[in-house]
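[audit] Reproducing an earlier prediction to check determinism. Same input, same settings, fresh worker. If the tokens differ from the archived copy the diff job will pick it up downstream; this log only records the rerun itself.
[audit] input (80 residues):
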Amino acid sequence: MTPRRLEDGYWRAYHDFYRWSNIWRGSAAQPGPHERLRHLAYAGGWKKFEPAWDLLIRSKRVVRALPALERTLAAFGGRG
């Protein structure tokens, strides 16, 4: 297998795994509505908006987004 085929296969699997239908299915498998919403927000927000995160990181502006991210995560709380 060539490095190019390996990388192409990786990205194909990545896109298949993080389809909205799979994110919803993963969310539905969570034990309660709070956990389902947390899963949706995390998986959807991180994986489906990855280009926006990449731009923030590359432009060194992610620190400015940190308060909003912390508020969002804190709204879901912890398990314990």
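[audit] rerun output stored. Observation attached for the diff report: The mean pLDDT is 85.
[audit] end
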